[in-house]
């Protein structure tokens, strides 16, 4: 009886360890690559609605290899207006349900300087390591997604959502075709909802 009790105790302990190891394996692989939303918010002034957000970005081995081989990777922020509901509904219909606003950053690697570069609207910053570049890629601040603010000036009447994704449509055609059906080339976050605060001085 004592032997059987000890046997099942060891078996139970072994199962717990195996389950824990399996969970760690899933977590390690689940967070090894992807885009994960961290936080987002907005500030409303008399003339603009400025959005700030942060995403944790990591690349799959295939994307990292393509980057090392000279491919520039375009990542697009997409903003959707949620409230005021009537105005948001009108914007979705008039824009054929496209995002209310988009902004694209490009990640590239320069072999001669051995530096990574994040570019946006003709401006770029260089980084010594990939994690530093990905950190900069995943942060956006003071994005005037609605420059001529006719939506609302009341923060309590505003909400939106934002996501970040690898924009395959902006890749060269051969890479677009190669990415078809390749799950490790599809990198996008879930939507993250956010509200706004009032910025009386108009500065983001």
Enumerate the spans where pLDDT stays under 50 for 5 or more consecutive residues: 17-31
N- to C-terminal separation?
72 Å
Which percent range describes the beta-strand content?
35-45%
| Alpha plus pi helix count | 5
- Care to count the β-strands? 9
C-alpha-based Rg, rounded: 22 Å
Secondary-structure element pattern, one letter each: HEEHEHEEEHEEHE
Describe the structure.
The chain has 5 helices and 9 strands; from the N terminus they run H-E-E-H-E-H-E-E-E-H-E-E-H-E. It has helices at 2-30, 61-68, 85-94, 130-137, 173-179; strands at residues 34-44, 49-58, 73-83, 101-110, 115-120, 123-127, 139-146, 159-166, 192-198. It is 30% helix and 37% strand. The protein is globular and about 50 Å long. A 9-stranded mixed sheet has the order 6-5-4-3-8-9-1-2-7, sandwiched between helices.
Task: Kindly list the characteristics that best describe this protein.
about 200 residues, alpha+beta, 9-stranded mixed beta sheet, 5 helices, about 35% strand
Write the layout of secondary structure elements.
Layout: H1 2-30, E1 34-44, E2 49-58, H2 61-68, E3 73-83, H3 85-94, E4 101-110, E5 115-120, E6 123-127, H4 130-137, E7 139-146, E8 159-166, H5 173-179, E9 192-198
Parallel strand pairs: 1-9
Antiparallel strand pairs: 1-2, 2-7, 3-4, 3-8, 4-5, 5-6, 8-9
């Amino acid at each position: 009886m004592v032997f059987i009790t000890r046997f099942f105790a060891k078996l139970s302990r072994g199962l717990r360890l195996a389950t824990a190891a399996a969970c760690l394996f899933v977590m390690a692989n689940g967070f090894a690559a992807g885009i994960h939303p961290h936080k987002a918010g907005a500030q409303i002034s008399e003339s603009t609605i400025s959005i700030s957000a942060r995403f944790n970005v990591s690349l799959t081995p295939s994307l990292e290899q393509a980057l090392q081989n000279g491919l520039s990777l375009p990542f697009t922020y997409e903003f959707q207006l949620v409230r005021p509901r009537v105005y948001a509904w009108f914007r979705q219909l008039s824009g054929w349900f496209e995002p209310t606003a988009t902004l694209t950053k490009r990640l590239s690697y320069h072999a001669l300087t051995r530096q990574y570069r994040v570019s946006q609207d003709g401006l770029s910053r260089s980084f010594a390591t990939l994690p530093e570049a990905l950190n900069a890629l995943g942060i956006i601040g003071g994005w005037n997604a609605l420059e001529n603010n006719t939506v609302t000036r009341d923060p309590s009447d505003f909400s939106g959502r934002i996501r970040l994704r690898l924009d395959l449509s902006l890749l060269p055609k051969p890479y677009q075709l190669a990415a078809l059906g390749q799950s490790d080339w599809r990198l996008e976050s879930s939507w993250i909802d956010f509200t706004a605060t009032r910025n009386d001085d108009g500065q983001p």
